[in-house]
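User: I'm putting together notes for a lab meeting next week and I want to include a structural view of one of the chains we've been expressing. I don't have a solved structure, so I'd like a prediction I can at least talk through. The sequence is below, exactly as it appears in our construct file.
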Amino acid sequence: MKSFYIIPFFALFFFLGCRADKKNSTTNDPAISSRYYFRYLEEEKNLKTEATFLQGDSLENAVAKTYSGVFFNDQEMTFKKISDANQRYILNIVSEFPANGLRFSFINDKGQKETQPFSFSSMKNLVAKGPVSKSNGVTITWEGEPLGPQESVICLFSDKNNRTTNTVLKGPTDSALINIPAENLSALTIGEGKFYFVRKSRIGKAETNRSISAVFEYYTSAIGIEVVK
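Assistant: Thanks for the context. Below is the predicted structure for the 229-residue chain, given as structure tokens.
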């Protein structure tokens, strides 16, 4: 159904996090950068997560770090070694969207479980308030939380000729509602079409000898529309 997926840029966030973490470090423990990725496809109910860890305080000396157990919402993730420099933990399942938040955790070298919780809302039941108008635009509502300050939404509309337009809107929003301006729809052909949204959140945190970055994505189901003048 979806025409593309957004690829997370692991290395950039890792090493920005590493440098910030080094500044705040107060112990001699090695710096660990954790990179988390979450993607949910609403129509297929496909849930995919990835977790990657690096140990070191710079690009020059950082190496892949592994743990005896890595989990997403208490479900163990599968280790995959692509190369010495590219090692990650993956979970790819059919599931409902997690109702109680997102939690990544791992068993550290001391045998203790470290957990990192995140908040990320679904974006269910998109509704176009009236026709999708090339001259007046359209208002879209959804069930779920408004966009937060670290969130954005990619709005993709396609017409009967498979011509696609996209609009990127950044949070925060006051409510679960956004307005698509007419100029972003003017290239569409009048007639039947469809649209879907991609909700995206980027998060970065720095703690003592821990830097954390995450990208979360929610792909809504495609909704049929009528494009009018």
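A couple of points you could mention at the meeting. The mean pLDDT is 88. The chain has two domains: 10-120, 124-200+221-228.

User: Perfect, that's what I needed.
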